[in-house]
Amino acid sequence: MKKIGFIDYYLDEWHANNYPKWIKERAAALGLSWTVAYAWADVDKNDGLTTAEWCEQQQVMQVATIEQLVQLSDAIIVLSPDHPEHHERLSQLALQSGKPVYMDKTFAPDVATALAMFSLAERHQTPLFSSSALRFADEIQAAARDFTPQSIGYASMMSPGKYSNYAVHPFEMVVTLMGTDIKRIKCHANEWGRQFIVAFHDGRQATVEQTASATFQATMATKTGEGQHIAQCSHMFENLIDAILQFFETPIVPVPKEETVVIMALIEAGSKALKQPDQWIEVMV
Hints:
Rossmann fold, Dihydrodipicolinate Reductase, domain 2, 285 residues, alpha/beta, Gfo/Idh/MocA family oxidoreductase, six-stranded parallel beta sheet, seven-stranded mixed beta sheet
């Protein structure tokens, strides 16, 4: 049985609480031998389980140091999904290990940090990838097979959640379907919601709308007049876990670095656009 180690800011969070079970189930379905065996967290959650309690509940071994976890593990997942500002610090030893590393969304707080982490991984020949689960939804994957990025003239994405930890999801859909040739972004927002306009260098355009009660959806129009509406995003976590396990097994990175970096650039530029309504902000990589 091959062993996965979890590195987290604190372990009592939704991804860490669900990934061990899903990994066990999907590994069995794929005929692979992977399990979450080790865990380390920087702090205990103030209003939740301690690291020791989480490890006991999940039947995972608590290790004393990141060094020990990296040494024992065959592959590593760096979690902290809602605190990407800790990713660079928490992943330093993992990215120097040469072992496959999956970095949970959101990959980085800014482009500079994203590039630094990829650079460190490349220097040590450490396979590294990160993604929103939305990329792997059945419907998004089907659309990515059916349409080339350049064929989509306009797309509109909807998303729930706060910008701080959910912007990665609709922007991941934009880049998955329309590519990385993004020029600029602007925003219209009030206290109840926000809309972003994403402009590509060749005139193609996408919008992203976020409101609290929205569901993940996408609508696309091709340059030849075809259209498609994605009313739901199915099996995204099952497919994400499959992608992680196949990555650990091979280890072939399933998401190009360039796409992840552009998504971080969109998030960074979008943060500026929120503070400067109706003004174009260049998306810089």
